[in-house]
Specification:
The chain is an alpha/beta fold. It has three domains: 64 residues, Arc Repressor Mutant, subunit A (Orthogonal Bundle); 131 residues, 3-Layer(aba) Sandwich (Rossmann fold), CATH 3.40.50; 94 residues, Response regulator (Rossmann fold, 3-Layer(aba) Sandwich), CATH 3.40.50.2300. 48% of the residues lie in helices and 15% in strands. The protein contains 15 helices and ten strands. A four-stranded parallel sheet has the order 4-3-5-6, with helices on both faces. Strands 8-7-9-10 form a four-stranded parallel sheet, with helices on both faces. Strands 1-2 form a two-stranded antiparallel ribbon. Helix 8 links the parallel strand 3 and strand 4. Helix 2 crosses helix 3. The protein is globular. The chain starts with 13 loop residues before the first helix and ends with a helix.
Amino acid sequence: MVDFHIQTDSDIPASKQLFDQIQFAIASRQYPPGHRLPSTRQLAMITKLHRNTISKVYRQLEETGLVESQAGSGIYVKAQGHEGGTQLGSPILTKYPSASKLVQQSLDQLLTEGFTLTQARELFLAEIDWRLRCSARVLVTVPQGDLGAGELMVKELEQSLGIPVQLVPMEQLSEVLDRTHSGTVVTSRYFIGKAEEMAAPKSVRVIPIDIYDYAKEIEAVTKLPKDSCLGVVSLSKGILNVAEILFHSLRGDDILVMTAQATDPHRVNAVVRTSQTIFCDGASYEIVKEAVLEERDQLIRHPEIIRCENYIGIKSINLLKRELGLG
């Protein structure tokens, strides 16, 4: 059960706090696809919010495409259609969905038993050709306003997959897809609805990735002394916004949270001068260390720097490798 925290006396509306916490739980796979969300009654008991407020939040989540309502059953995290291996673009396998599933399961089994793709190609030519076409071009897409999140994804995916990955602003995705005949679009669950809307008509699949759940970092926040100053530095403006709301919901005014994009040196230096503890992503770590060195003469005590190693969850990386036929 995800532990929700709502600061009712905050300037941030309670519905916004709850929406962001549930959205984060889905994006970090604490609530995986198919998971049933708590009923409005259960969530009202946990958060002390009115059930109408919770219903409003659930409607907003449904509008974003993250959850779906099943009559008489409840609200469920929506599976995006490609997490079990379903593919777009092959007319034969689309026409015979049961055959498609059988081919995919058989191919995975052959790979597990040591067959190469070349050997399996004689048996499953259409399936293998499809996987090779999709892995030939991987596009990461995020909104223009948070390209930093996309840069983190690209860096980790290229390192893990061993293939080139292209970053495309979501506002340009439709135009780019018009010029490509095959490929795979990868994005966070935060943006999956918009990406699907543009990619589906062009028979290009979209694979959602789960972000790291930051459980260790969140636990560390709960243990900070009252009146501590916590700094958060990231390439991603979206990460900073979510972190600020999550930590506020968790601790309220007990701690001060300062954030800075790694591309803003003046703000980073201010975070270094003020904070006792600083969280940063891998791409920002050296920037924060350099800022500490620059400010060392002004610091009574150097802040503790906690490096968050991953942005993408390990399980999500492994799933993507399997979907692309890379492992």
